[in-house]
Amino acid sequence: MTTSLQDIAQAMVAQGKGLLAADESTGTIKKRFDTIDVDSTEENRRDYREMLFRTTPAMKEAISGVILFDETIRQKAADGTPLTQIIQDAGSIPGIKVDMGAKDLPRSHGEKVTEGLDGLRARLREYYELGARFAKWRAVIDIGRGGNRSVPSAYCIHANAHALARYAALCQEAGIVPIVEPEVLMDGDHDAERCYQVTQATLKALYTELYEQRVSLEGTILKPNMIVSGKSCPTQASPEEVAERTLKCFAHTVPAAVPGIVFLSGGQSDIDATANLNAINQLKSASSSPYPWALSFSYGRALQTAPLDAWRGNAANVTAGQRAFAHRARMNGLAATGAWSPEMET
Q: Across 185-306, where does the E strand assignment appear?
C-alpha cells in the first residue's frame, strides 16, 4: 500500500473518485436502521457495510477511500475476510474517524467543540496497524438563528481550529493523512451570504492554526461544507450560486498546497449534493481563474440513503442495495468531473 502522505492524499482525490463516509457511530447508525425497522446489532451493521464494500465495479471506479468507525475497522466479513482487506481489494484506501464527538464548549452560548485529543497518539498507532492510512476529525460550527450574529463566536471558531490542527499534526506523525473537517452547519434560517462569511472566517482560522502547528498541507485533505442557504431560509441558492460562492470562498482561504477538497453533503438531498458538486466542477473547468485543488465528495447519507432503503436488512435484497449504491457512487463520480446531468438519474 502507498505510504507517502502526499501520495495517499493524491490517491484520495483521484479524478472521478471520492470518499464513502461509512463512519456513523453506533448511535447514529441505529437511527438510520430505525427508519427501515432493522435492529442495530453488530452483525447487521457488519452485513450492511460489507454489502457496500463489495459493490463492484462501482467501488473501483468511483470510491477512492472509505471512512470507518472504530467497530468497523476491527470487523471481519461473514466469510472471515477483514473488512479493511475487502476495501483494499476494491482499490480503495481504508480510513478511520478518530474524534469523540462535539461537546458543549465551556462558557459559550450553546456552541460546541470536538473532543478526542487525549490518547490520540496511541490510538493512531493502533489504527495504522489495523490498516488505516487516513483519518477524519469533524468540527461543528453553528450559525445563529433569526439574524443572531454572535453565533458562531470567534472563541468557538478558534477552539475548533486549534483542535483540528493538533489532530492533524498527530496524524502526520503516525503516517496517516488527516482529513480536516470544519463543518459550518446548514441548519437554520441564514442565507447563503451568511454561510459564506462564517465559512471564510472558519477556514482562515483553520489554515492559520495548521501553519502554526507545522502541518504539511500537501499531506492533508479538506472536508468542508458547500456555501448553501440554511435549511429554513425562504430563498435557497441555486447550484450555480452555490458554485460561485463556494469557489470564491476557497480562492480567498485555501492554500494551493492542499491536494484536494472533498465536500460533505451536510443534510442535502442525494440529488442536491450531486447537482451542487457538478456545478462547482463545471464552473471550475470554465473559469479563467486557477483553482488548483481537486474537488470531489466525501458523502455519507447522500451515498447511503438509497441502498439502505433498498436493502432493509434482508439478505435477498443485497443485489438491489448494491445496485442503488453503485448508481449514487457513479453519479457523484461523474459530478466530480462536471459530467453529470439530471437526465442520468432516470
A: 221-222, 260-263, 294-299
d(CA 301, CA 24): 10
109 CB contacts (<8 Å, ≥6 apart)?
150, 151, 153
SS (H, E, C) 144-167: CCCCCCCCCCHHHHHHHHHHHHHH
102-104 and 112-114 beta bridge pairing: antiparallel
What pLDDT is recorded for position 1?
46
CATH of residue 50: 3.20.20.70
CB-CB neighbours of 271 under 10 Å:
14
Residue 60 identity? K
pLDDT for res 3: 74
Could you write out the DSSP letters of every residue in 282-322?
HHHHH-SS---SEEEEEESHHHHHHHHHHHTT-GGGHHHHH
Q: Where are the beta strands (DSSP E) in 122-220?
A: 134-141, 177-184
Contact 103, 112 (CB under 8 A): yes
Distance between CA atoms of residues 198 and 253, nearest Å:
12
Find the domain containing 256 and state its range.
Answer: 5-345
284 flagged as catalytic: no
* Set 204, 223, 231, 248: catalytic member: 223
> Average pLDDT by consecutive 10-residue portion of the chain (346 residues)?
85 98 97 98 98 96 98 97 98 98 96 98 98 98 96 98 98 98 97 98 98 98 98 97 98 98 96 98 94 98 97 98 98 98 95
Cell reading at 216: 504539511
> Among all chains, which residue has been given the C-alpha cell 457513479?
330
**pLDDT (tens digit per residue) in 3-48:** 799 999 999 999 999 999 999 999 999 999 999 999 999 999 999 9
CA–CA distances in Å: residue 66 to residues 73, 74, 84, 116: 10, 14, 9, 21
39: Cα separation from own chain's centroid: 26
pLDDT in tens, 234-246: 999 999 999 999 9
User: Into how many domains does the chain fold?
Assistant: 1
